[in-house]
Structure formats: structure tokens, C-alpha cells
């Protein structure tokens, strides 16, 4: 059961173009958002669609694949782990971020 402790699997569409950062030594970082949709019927029997937005980051080879093949609107499946971090913004205020660090990526839909 250790493999299931912090595992996230999502299928959705990219909400924006991935932001790629290059670091010394050739290491890459990709930041992007993923929208997942859920459809259900409410108490009145009406169809309701709900969208959740997720912040994702990918490093190394996964970031390179994202840079080459993934664009806004593209449907992908990811697997990764949930992380939390804090930072101070330019006004000195503490900000909290929850994001998924992507370890595996599957391109779905039409090329």
C-alpha cells in the first residue's frame, strides 16, 4: 500500500500554454493548469457540469515532452504526487500553493 500514499491521477484539458523555464545544466521546468470536468444531475434532475482547475509542474524529460507536444486545450492524462509549498510575493505577503508534480504523462485525443 505504500505506492498509494500520495498518488494523483487526472485526465483533463490544458487551460493555458505551458510555461517552460530553462535552468543551468539544461534542466527544464514546465508549469501549466489542467481542467477536469464532472457532470451530474442535481435534485431537480438538471444536468450540472462542474470544472476543477489544478496547478501542475513537471521537470526534466517530462517537461521536454510537454514543451514539444502539449498545447492549450490538449487532452492529457497525468500521474504524480500532491505537494504544498509557501512563498512570499513581491508585497511580502505569504502565499500558499498546492500543485501536482507530474511523474508520468499520456497524450490523449487528436494530435
From TrEMBL:
InterPro entries: NA-bd_OB-fold (IPR012340), Primosome_PriB/ssb (IPR000424), ssDNA-bd (IPR011344). One of its GO terms (biological process) is DNA replication. Keywords: DNA-binding. SUPFAM superfamilies: Nucleic acid-binding proteins (SSF50249). GO terms for cellular component: nucleoid. One of its GO terms (molecular function) is single-stranded DNA binding. Pfam families: SSB. It comes from the Bacteria. HAMAP family: SSB. Homotetramer. This is Single-stranded DNA-binding protein.
